[in-house]
Amino acid sequence: MTTLKIYADRVSQPARAVILFCRLNGIEFEEVEIDIFKGVHLSPEYKEINPMEQVPAIVHGEFKLFESHAILIYLASAFPGIADHWYPADLFKRAKTHSLLDWHHNNLRRGAMGYLLHLKLAPLFGVPLNPQAAAECRRILEASLWRIDSFWLQGTGNFLLGNDRPSIADLSLVSEIMQLQMLEEDDRNQIVGPFKKVQQWIEDVKNATQPHFDDIHAVLFEAIAKMKEQQANSSVPGS
Amino acid sequence: MTTLKIYADRVSQPARAVILFCRLNGIEFEEVEIDIFKGVHLSPEYKEINPMEQVPAIVHGEFKLFESHAILIYLASAFPGIADHWYPADLFKRAKTHSLLDWHHNNLRRGAMGYLLHLKLAPLFGVPLNPQAAAECRRILEASLWRIDSFWLQGTGNFLLGNDRPSIADLSLVSEIMQLQMLEEDDRNQIVGPFKKVQQWIEDVKNATQPHFDDIHAVLFEAIAKMKEQQANSSVPGS
Questions:
Q1: Domains and CATH numbers, chain A
Q2: Are A191 and A200 in contact (CB under 8 A)?
Q3: Which chain A residue is nearest to residue B54, measuring alpha carbons?
Q4: Long-range pairs of B165-168 with CB within 8 A, sequence gap ≥ 24
């Protein structure tokens, strides 16, 4: 049998989406940890796997692939017996799935990732914080959540595009929103609080993907706890 | 026969890619002009077509779709007789095409579009110029061109992914680079000049898609000429 290797760091939201998809569909894989906070994604060895120096990437036999949406589509197409709802074969449903995945790049992903980066994470990558860029990304993030609430979650089903069952897009977008757990609780509540449908949808995706969802997100929550501990220790009371 | 309507403004790079694809493949369509500088994309009528208020969008019979990559894939799949090189059926070639299209969103597109917006176009949309954001986008743009030159154009063929014939990705990415004609010539030469393979590839895509390429880009060049004329008129000599 051809070996599937997934190069991932579970603190990365697209990496989690790919691992979650494999777990849910009984796809066997070997997980290779690429610690992005230690810069392993920048190593010469990893550049041989993904020259773009990002996670996730896969190697399936001789075939190398990066970009999480392309990976999800490949896995849904290459492995037999994957239920149709993940990546529908129907021309129109598939086109809508592509439209949503494309939209994600410049909207929810750009807003959520950019806000976290410029507000909190930049120093971990040797870049200064940038409040102006953070504010602009927050605006994109809130507008994106509004679009999900008022457009992408329209229809009869509980999932994106009004589907009755989740697709690869639900995995990608919910993984992104889970990253907002890195924010302070007040800030996160202020951002996500107004969007009731979004909150219900996150719960529905979690419920539809347990116990894998919590298992795969455990690493993220550990990283967040560690980060908050470090912050607390570095806040020396003023004298 | 089901009517295909393309809602487009040819000054928009993804709109041009969709129109070019249809012209090259003999797909009949009705083009509905959505003048983005006049804000027609924000009108209630257009929101019925594309609630995201962007061009391009299509309506094919009853089916509505937005996001240019999703549209290109849909058209390549829905119309009979489209040559395989545009969107290969082979699992591995198709996966690489998806990977490249996904990469484009957060790299070449983000860099090129952002640089133009923050350096030149923002006031047309009622937003101030932002030199800091422009500099960051320029960095992304140059890094993206380097990736195209050193990675995506590797291989024996003249086109992206080392293909012998262009794919929908070549149309999307070259349309994006053509937008840089809006820059001052010196600035554009400084950005694109170091990348000889990129320059040759642009010529190869043009040659492979004439006479449609020049025809579809004429509107862009007219808009640029008009913009430069207005700039010249507003630069009153100092007294």
A1: 4-82 (3.40.30.10), 87-233 (1.20.1050.10)
A2: no
A3: A103
A4: B165/B83, B165/B85, B165/B208, B166/B85, B166/B86, B166/B205, B166/B208, B166/B209, B167/B85, B167/B86, B167/B87, B167/B88, B167/B97, B168/B17, B168/B21, B168/B69, B168/B72, B168/B73, B168/B76, B168/B86, B168/B87, B168/B97, B168/B101
State the DSSP H helix or E strand holding residue A52, giving kind and residue range, or none if neither.
Answer: none
Place of tokens 């347990």: A210
- Which residues are paired to B57 by β-bridges? B7, B66
| Rounded (10°) CA dihedral A35, A37, A38, A41 | 60
A53, pLDDT greater than 70:
yes
Interface check B125 vs A, CB under 8 A: no
Name which of A58, A83, A91 is nearest A209 in CA terms: A83
Residues of chain A in contact with residue B136, where contact means CB-CB under 8 angstroms, are 133
CA distance B75 to chain A (A): 10
CA–CA dist B109, B173 (Å, integer): 8
Which secondary structure element, helix H or strand E, spans residue B164, and what is its range?
none
**Which of A99, A150, A167 to mutate to probe the B interface, most B CBs <10 Å?**
A99
pLDDT of A55 above 90: yes
Q: ipTM more than 0.85?
A: yes
* Angle ∠(A216,A127,B189) on CA atoms, nearest 5: 110
Q: How many CB atoms lie within 10 A of CB B42?
A: 11
| Residue type at B159 in one-letter notation | F
Q: Which of B102, B110, B117, B118 to mutate to test the interface with A (most CBs of A within 10 A)?
A: B102
Strands A57-60 and A4-8: antiparallel
Point out the residue among B70, B103, B133 whose CB comes nearest to the CB of A98. Answer: B70
Contact state of B67 with A99 under an 8 Å Cβ cutoff: yes
Burial zone of B52 (CB within 10 Å; 0-12 exposed, 13-18 middle, 19+ buried): middle
> Taking CB atoms and an 8 Å limit, are B74 and A102 in contact across chains?
no
* Tokens standing for residue B140: 């992304």
Residues of B in contact with A102 (CB under 8 A): 67-70, 105
| Structure confidence at residue A236 (pLDDT) | 53
Residue A97 has pLDDT above 50, yes or no: yes
Bond before B194 cis per omega within 30 degrees: no
pLDDT confidence of residue A239: 43
Q: In sequence order, which ranges of B148-211 are alpha helices (DSSP H)?
A: 168-178, 185-192, 196-209
Lowest mean pLDDT among A46-55, B70-79, B189-198, B229-238: B229-238
Cβ of residue A106 closer than 8 Å to a chain B Cβ: yes
